[in-house]
Structure formats: C-alpha cells, structure tokens
Amino acid sequence: MRISYAWLRDYLKLDLPADELAEKIERTAVEVDGVIRPSEGLKKVVVGHVLECVPHPNSDHLHICQVDVGEADPIQIVCGAPNVAAGQMVIVALPNSWIGGHTKIKRSKMRGEVSNGMLCALDELGFDEKLVPKEVADGIFILPADATPGEPVFSYLGMDDEIIDMSVTPNRGDMLSMNGTAHELAAIYDQTPTMPKVDLTEDAADLADDDLNITVQADEQAVPQYKMRLIKHVTIKPSPLWLQIRIWNAGMRPINNVVDATNYILMQYGQPLHAFDFDQLDAGQVNVRFAKAGEQLTTLDGEERDLLATDLVICSNDKPICLAGTMGGLATEVTDQTTSIALESAIFDAVKIRKTAHNHNLHSEASMRYERGIDHGATEKALDAAAAMIAKLGNGTVTSGVVVGRDEDVKPVEVAITLTRINHVLGTDLSLDTVSDLFKRLDFPTTVTDDTFNVTVPSRRWDIHIPADLIEEVARLYGYDNLPSTLPTGQPTIGKLNETQQAIRDARKLMESAGLTQAISYSLTTDSKARAFALHASDVTTLDFPMSSERTTLRLSLIAGLLDDLAYNNARKEQDVALYEQGRVFFSQPEQVRPKEVEHLAGAITGSMVKTAWDTAATPVDFYQIKGIVAGYLKSLALVDPISYVATTAHAEMHPGRTADIYVGDQLVGFVGQIHPTTAKAYKIRETYAFELDLAALIALPKARQQYQPISKFPSITRDVAMLIDDTVTNADIVALIHDKGGAHLQDVHLFDLYNGKHVPEGKKSLAYTLTYQDQAATLVDEDVTKAFDKVLSALTEDLGAEIR
C-alpha cells in the first residue's frame, strides 16, 4: 500500500520528515518497505511553453520546436513525439539535466539541427510504463495551461510528494485505505483526523429502482452485502490532473474519469467498487450467483476464462459479466460511448475471492482487499462518495436511492477487559486514566466500571474481537520501547541437544569427515522424482496449489534431490562431486490426515574423491568405496544387532547387480549401490554411486555401551590361508564361518587378495585371508593358534568346499 504524504496532510497536521513518520509506522503498526521520492535524482527539468512547432526538413517524423523555458530567449529543441504541437505546456529537460534512469541530457544535433534539451514523456522521468495514461503512452505529457514556464516540473506531476510504501500484514486490512491509515496515525499522534465528507445530490424525479433490479442467489456468507447506484448522462473523459496524480502515486494507471473515481474511492475507503456500462446490461437485470460448469467470461484484460463452480459471478439476466471482487467483464466495460453507469459496492467472502484470484491468476487491488477484509459499515458510504465524484467529474446525475440486493445489520463489537489483566500481561503499572486515554485516541467509545473497561470497537477495526486484541492495542500505542524489561525467574537450565539432535549432528560430522559436502535440496519436487528411490512403499502427498510444476509433490527420498545437485555441478564442468544430505522425507498412507515425516541420511558421489597429484592417481569411486563410508558410519553407532548387506534388484532406479539392501538384524534400514545407467542418463550425470539410510530407525535401534579397552601388551600371531572356492560363495559367508570356528582369541579376519583369472578353473576364484590371534591376558603359544587355525581349515573344506592352497 503506497501512502501519499501530501494526501495524508488532508487528514492530519503532520510536519515531521517522511522518514521519521515511516519509522513510527513501522514501530507501531505495520512494516514499511521504504520512502519513495519520485523526484530524487532528477535535475533541471522544467516547464516549457511550445511557441512554434514545424516539421524537421530532413526527417518525416521529427519536429523543430521553439520553447519558452522562462529565459530571455526561447530555446530550440528537436522532438519526435507525434502529439507535440504549438501552444502546449510541456516537460523540458534542459542541457546538462538528469532524467530517469540516471540519464544525462546534453546539447546535441539531430539530423543537422541543434537540439538544446529534450521534451519528455512521463516514463522518461522514471514513471513505470504501466502507470502512464494510455492517451500519452506514445508521446510527451501535456501539462496544464496555467503552468509557468521555467518552473521545476515536479509539483505539477506530484513528483514533489513523498510516498510511504507500507507492507500491510493480513490482520491489518484496515490500513489498505487512506481513511484507515489516517485513523491509525491519529491515534499514534493523538490527533483528530479530518475525514472526507460525502456531498451527494440525487435526482428525486428519477428512481434507481425503476431501472435496476438486483437478485442475490448466493448465500449470505458468500455475499453479505450487495448494493448499486445508477448515474446517468455521464461524459467519459480523462480525469483532472490532481486525480491522475493521486492515482499514479498510489501505483495505479489513470484510465478515465469514471474508472479513476472508483480507484480513488478504493484507495480512500478501502472498499472495492466496479462500474458497469448500464446500457450493456440486459434490461437492467443484475444477479449474483456461483458460476456453472462450462461457463466462460472474457475479462477486461481480454482473456477468455473458463469459470469454476467456486467462482462468484455477477450476471445480467443470468449471463456472466464480472468475476466478483476480482475483475470485470469486457462486455460491460466503460468506454468513450458510455453514458450511464451502474456502480457496484459489495462485500464478498474472503475465501471465495482468494480462490478465484488464485485459480485464474488475477490478483488485483480489489481482490487483495477482499482477502484481508472490508469494513462492512462503509460499503454504502463508499458507494455514495463514488457516485458523487463520478457525477461531478462526468457532468452526470445520480438517480434517487440505492438499489439493495442484500444488506446486513452491522453492529460494533463490544469487548470487556480489566486494568489488572492489561498490567499483568504487559508487566506495566498503567493507570485507569492512561488506558482510557489510549482507547480515546483509537476512537473506541469506552465506559469504565471499577477496574473493567467496556470497549466498543467500530466496524473499521474488524481485527479486534477478544481482550488479547485490546492488550495489543494498548501495548502498541503506549510504545513497545516503554514496556519494562525483566529477566525471567526460576532455576536456569543448561541447554543441550537431546539424543536425536545429537545423533543427527554426529551423522553430519561423520559424513563431512569422510569427504562429503552437505547439500540442501527442496522437499518439493515432481511426482515422478518424488516416487523414485523410495525405501518403503508409500503414497505421495501433492499440493493443491503448487507454485510451479517442478514443486508439486513431497519427496519420499533424498537421492533425487542430490542427483539434481550433481547434474547442476556436472553441467558446470565440476566432474568430481561428493554430496550428502540429512533431511526429512514424507511417507503417507490413505488413512493418514497428514504425511509422516521421517529423518533420512543420503549421499551421492560421482567422479573421484581423490584429486590427481604428482604422487597420486585419481581413482573413480566404486561400490566398495561408498559402502565403506556407510559401514564406517554404521560402526560409529555401536548397534547391538549385526549389520548385513544383501544384494537386491528391488530398486528400479539402482543398478541391479551393484546394489545392496542394508539390514540391522532383520530390519531394513537403507540401501547402497550404483545409480542405474538409464537413470543417470536421464539426470545427465556420469557414473554415480549413492546410499540412503533411515536415520530415524537407526537412532531408535538399541545401542551397545561403548567402553574403552586398553591395547593388549601381549604380541599377536597371524596365519594366512589361500583357497580356491566356488564363485557363488560370498566373502561374507567365508568371514562368518572363520569367526564361528576361529576360537576365542581370533581378533580379525582380513581379505588381502582376490584373483579370478588365468590358472583358476572356470566357476572358481582364489581368495587369501590373514587371521590375527591375540590374547588380552597372556602370550599365545603356537600350538594353541595352530589348533584353532586347523579347525578353520577343516570347516572351510567341509562346509564350503574350499580347496586350501
């Protein structure tokens, strides 16, 4: 909401700097984005009077103008604007002046003719092109005839004003109007605002009811109020300059005197209005209802829109002519041929308008106010004010009476609160007189009985309903800076992380110590990516109103987001990337109201984790490297149950021969492996390995108590064994058997050689292991180790069919 400081002075006596006023608003009411000074950065831009305008001898579109700029002699300026003519008052940028876009104007020659400056259009002064009136959009702006040549142009265009740009929060919709803002500032500065008066003259002989007939078919919740007035014999023309200035300083484009009047009242009262060309209505019939399936409406922006059953529409003889509270229809647009105006003022349900604006992507000044609330008590007053202004600006007459389709009995809200409660919540010691004065400044009629305030809240402050709202008002006006500061009482506690938080933090540290870099990706993705890499079967959760087609569905896995990150890096020539992400995934079942949020940990690596150096060769990541990272992390958790890796083909997006599910005991906690080449190609990445772990499940699993054990002071003994064994026998099977038969002193089993080439029979492989024996309490003797080792050799031969070499 852009508030004109000059307009505010029509309401209040304000002489403080605009920056100070903006800071006060921000401290007390709503956030302020900044103060806009339209003339800032402009220099030597003055009023000029075109004395003569002749065609340029060397151009078919340029003109040579002699312009009076208040100096002893006129200056010559070459201008290409199609609407320049002798006798006009124009905007002149003198030589060495500065105009919009920090552009300096110099004396120059155009097609051989000297040009001492420039005749300016509004956009050349820095106006947004969307705010420039259409009649001068392709030419220069013409100033009023009484403008004085040589004077700075800024006061004639309202550019000497200061605009306070407020970011109004949803609960303070009353400040989306000049009246509401004036009431707020009057309370802040303890003034009585001068509110606008409505001077409406009606034609008693011409009754509006005779020409207009309104039927409201929608329910009372959707349309609490709907009223219209009829203005006849209106002449459509551009608005006077003072009105255009107020319109464009508020951030809207001047259209004509009728539309500008409705926008002016919108800014003044916060009440959206709409003007229909009465002659385009079917016999003056107006009805308000919900749209029907298959109906269409061409709106003022020229777009043909398919209406939805949730859309409120204004109809004439049941034919849609307007999207209620959002945008009018093209068929009933006010044009230069319009002579009679049917003016609408209504209250529509905020939720309905919000849905319509969102579904049709039509967010307007009107819909924004309906969404945040409207003063139900000012609907007819705003209608009268707009009718009076249209009649005055268009030399028309207002027919007698308001045509009412639906009305409501608007009563002020009464709220009671005690002084004791106010002081208790705010920690203050305010007196009855102080609080009474604050309610008086708010213009809330108040009666005091003993310790209790009975406050009557006018309809313009529809955000106040309960005692807590009044406490907030007292705190705001009294000043947050004036509230006492106290330290909390009680025994302080030492802040620390809980078990889950500590486990998550430890997981991040371990991933980073392993060489991975943290990534954070979006929780929302496409439907196909959301379903990919899911650890458990689940429905997906989709948004009803996604912001884009790329962010429609909550993810079931973290890997898809990491692959997007890898693709982003690969596209920028970063081929060696190792990323991890710790975040939540969202599992959903049909019977669930909302999805279950589960903490996961995932990683993805492509290229090499070791850079090439003079003594080191880069080694592409493989299955065993990423499995080693996962194994190292799982070992750090000291899980009670054994960890196992089981080859799987259940994950369609993973390589069927290089992927393993990870189990702790019998519980599936994740998977690790290579991304399927087809999936990698779809993401435009190279060979990539990834893992995903159910972090929440891992945290919940039982842990062994980790205790310190001193290093044994007794020597260890090693034995090596090499064997030929079937390819179908896994390393895990062999290691498990060795540990089972190796005896109490077997400390470690290490695979140091794997051979599967020449001199090895078909279907066989050669494996070699080192077994380490050590006693924590005594020195082992060879006989004991040999005895235990022989048991291992026998078991390998008998149970697994190994051939010891």
UniProtKB/TrEMBL annotation:
What is the top EC class of this enzyme, as a single word? ligase
Q: Where, by residue number, does Mg(2+) bind?
A: 463, 469, 472-473
CDD domains of this UniProt entry? PheRS_beta_core, tRNA_bind_bactPheRS
Q: Which residues form the FDX-ACB domain?
A: 712-805
Record note on cofactor: Binds 2 magnesium ions per tetramer.
Q: Which family does it belong to?
A: Belongs to the phenylalanyl-tRNA synthetase beta subunit family. Type 1 subfamily.
What name appears for this protein in its UniProt entry? Phenylalanine--tRNA ligase beta subunit
